[in-house]
Amino acid sequence: MKKEVKRAYVYEAKCFECNKIQKIYFTMPDFGDAPIIQKCRFCSTLYWHTPEDEYYIKPLDKQLEGKACIKCDANLNKTLVPTHSHIKCCNVEFSLDDDYSYGISVDSASMEEVEVYLIY
Fold it and tell me: Most CB atoms closer than 10 Å: which of 3, 18, 24, 68?
């Protein structure tokens, strides 16, 4: 898989145990559908694809057949999760509610460049 730098919005969640900041990366639609950023639930490596990729190339589950995580070798068809779930810190795993992004200011100041692997 090809590695690229993309821009994504950032939400900073605090660990419930130590209050350390955990960065949650997400995308929002601009003109049409938003790119999708997901992570490996075991090592948090980030992966990127778009709805157009699934439509024009191949469905995601078919594209991921036989592919493993670049860092931990987990089966990507079983390990990709939204970036706001399975957050690990202090030997504890937590998740944010699915609607956590509604209260977030989404402007260019809340964006960062992040390294991701392109699934397609």
Answer: 24
Longest dimension (CA), the chain: 44
Q: What is the dihedral of CA 60, 63, 66, 72, to 10 degrees?
A: -60
> pLDDT, tens digit, for every residue of 61-118?
999 999 999 999 999 999 999 999 999 898 888 888 866 666 666 777 789 999 999 9
Q: How many domains does the chain have?
A: 1
pLDDT tens-digit readout, 65-81: 999 999 999 999 999 99
d(CA 119, CA 102) in angstroms, rounded, equals 27
In the numeric block, which tokens belong to residue 41?
């639930």
What contacts 24+ positions apart, CB below 8 Å, involve 90-95?
Answer: 90/15, 90/17, 90/18, 90/20, 92/15, 92/16, 92/17, 94/15, 94/16
The range of the structural domain enclosing residue 69 comes to 2-118
